[in-house]
Amino acid sequence: MLKFASRKTRKTLKTLLGLVFFAYLVTSKSFAYSETNNRVLNFVEQLEDIRTLSDSDQKSAIEKLKLIKPSLNEFPLNQQLEYYHLLAETHSLLGQHRLARSTAEQALVLASGLISPRIVIAKLAYDLGYSLESLGHLDLALEQYLSGLDVAESLEEQKEIAVGLINVGAIYYQTAKLSEAIITINEALTIAENLSDKELKGLVYSELGILYGSLGEPEKSIEFYKNSYRYYTEADKPLLAINNLRNIASSYRGQGKTDQAIASYNRLLDALEGINHVEMEFSAHVGLATIYADEETKQYDLAIEHLTKTEQLLSQVEHHFLPFRFLIDKAVVYKEMKRYEETLAIVEEALNLFHSKQFKVTPMNEAVLLVLRSETYRLMGRYKEAYDTYLRVYDLNMEDMQNSQTQSVAELRLQYESRRADIENSLLANKSKLESIALDEARENSENKQNYIYYISIIVVIFAILLNVLRKSQRQLLKVSRTDALTQLINRRRFIELANRELVKAKKQKESVALLVIDCDLFKTINDNYGHATGDNALKLLTRLGQQHFAKPEIFGRYGGEEFMVLLPGTTREQAIEKAQHYRKAVSALSWNDENEHLLSVSIGVVTTTDANSYNFEELFELADSLLYQAKEKGRNQVCV
Predict the structure, then answer these.
(1) 582-620 as b/e, with b when 16 or more CB fall inside 10 Å?
(2) Could you tell me the CATH superfamily of domain 492-640?
(3) For 87-118, what is each residue's pLDDT tens digit?
């Protein structure tokens, strides 16, 4: 027995028992860790399976996601956010934009608990942006897209950078910033080509199709849509591919290619069989209604059939613009069916909706309605009202022209004024004649006089629309200007653009230019110890201090994350060092943390064109960045040259 054993034996046994107990603890913990890890892996696999399902059966995907929800808190926060991203994305695919918005907002609140930025934050910002865009809040959508883009850029996730650029470009062309849209979407196209990502290419080509449709190039637009359809199909994204059928049909309809449009709309409806996507089904029926009511087709029974189906779907549509678009198309159908009083009532309803400003509108939206009203007046024999309405269309385009600020557009406006004066003189010369026509009840002269008004009016409208297209084309010459969402400084792309411009100028004048690359020391520690809100405040403090120390023509911008850049034109090596040291010392002197547990400091790399023997921005940045890391290695809070 143990009590009769020697002291040495008892000691040995105790040691053995201790080792056995330790081995038990290690084994049990390892087993627990392995079990937890397996559960997380299973959860990830579940999400991937549901994501695949969402490409073809969104409703079933949402039901499966609902089944997971009760156990969601058992998984790491990052995986929870992936769950919410998939849920928001699936709601968007179904056109359930309000549900997508609330889901993304809830997830972004949870994301504040992450220790460091994750790419899922960018995806959720894009989800929220798209839902806001679809609900008509374009300004708020742009903020979310830029926020997501900043996260993607800081993590150098090329695919999500491209997605962000596409989203931002979409807002640009919807707000008539066509030059910015072209540049931004083409940046995304370059990334997509380099990555050879088929789904990403599908997205880029779809947006290019919409963009070139806006520029009045329908043939090129359709070609882009067809490419998008092909890439989405190859990427096994059937619903996204189907959406291109809607765009192709709409383009054919706009060109007056009736047979191709009908075939494309019917193909769209066949593809939607069993999917129950309200927005696309709505678009197909309203498109077919307007085609069948057309003067050449005159199949009014089919027009009414599709119009009725459209009205039945209207209450389920969440996209902000579609109810307005529906009223326009409904007015067109009724006009073609010679139901003129009802046409005028629908136009009036649409104009009231337009002026309520419940969604983003342009003068051309109003112009379309006024053209419909004027044409209806003409067909009713109310010529004076037709004339007055067309003049209003005329004035709308002039008001829009006057808002343009480029010299080329100003010259175009002068040409328009001159042409308008010629037309107005012709119209005024016949004004009394036009008014007498409206009162003349002699049937034998009515037809000739109607045609006279009609042709003059058509000339005015066509000229106005052409001028509007030309004006938009001129805007392609405008430069892109972008700011960082957090600090309101110019961001990396804008900084590089301005820096290259200054470097070209300096090279011609043989002047020295300095580049400073600044990094906030121990920024991760700040985030970990005090939270991301405090980290953001630190960046804002560095920004305000930078704005006080660097002024025009000096260029101060945010590179991404905790890094900033400053370009100092006409600055020597010694002057650049002095400025860098001055800023570094000012940062160190800041009192920003009540407990004084963490002093704020920066490390700075400084390079000049003279030192580098180059005016190439990439070479200057590479040198300055390497000097910055030397400053870090030497203990931080230093300037290295």
Answers:
(1) ebbeebeeeeebeeeebebbbbbbbbbbebbeebebeeb
(2) Reverse transcriptase/Diguanylate cyclase domain (3.30.70.270)
(3) 998 888 888 888 889 899 888 888 877 777 88
